[in-house]
Amino acid sequence: MSATLDSLTTGVQVGSVLPLLTAVVQRPAWSAKHKKVVAVVAAVLAGVATVAATGGLPQFQHGIPTAATLLGVLGASQTSYDLLWKPSKLAPMIEAVTTNKPPHQAE
């Protein structure tokens, strides 16, 4: 049970900062649907990496702890984005800063 809690706790921590990492890839001009797809794919990949890092490859044999960690990452990433990173304007600012601007738009 302790390994499950460790994996889930780590997953929530990863998910909490994941929107800032995802913002590096996303662009302000993308549709909300496109951004959501990128965020969900990133959360699934981060969840798989979290399970592998905390429990090793044998951890994937246990379906419920693996699913709980994946859902923990996804839930934490969406919640932290909606409640923290979006209202603080930090994630949108990262999107804007990392967007390639044509030379005539560069400051």
How would you describe this structure to a colleague?
The protein has 107 residues and is mainly alpha-helical. The protein has one domain (2-98). Helix content is 75%, strand content 0%. The protein has helices at residues 2-25, 32-55, 63-85, 90-98. Helix 1 (2-25) runs antiparallel to helix 2, helix 1 crosses helix 3 and helix 2 crosses helix 3. The longest helix is centred in the N-terminal third of the chain and has 24 residues, at 2-25. The chain is elongated and about 50 Å long.
Give a brief rundown of this model:
The chain has about 110 residues and is mainly alpha-helical.
Secondary structure layout plus pairing:
Layout: H1 2-25, H2 32-55, H3 63-85, H4 90-98
Helix pairs in contact: 1-2, 1-3, 1-4, 2-3
Order of helices and strands: HHHH
User: What is the averaged pLDDT score?
Assistant: 86
User: Tally of extended strands?
Assistant: 0
- How large is the count of helical segments? 4
SSE class:
mainly alpha
Span of the ends, CA to CA: 54 Å
Shape: elongated
Helix content bin: over 70%
Rg, Cα atoms, Å: 16 Å
Assembly form of the protein: single chain
Structurally, the number of domains stands at 1
- The unreliable regions are none
Query: How would you sum up the major sheet?
Result: none
Strand content: under 5%
Question: What are the defining features of this structure?
Answer:
107 residues
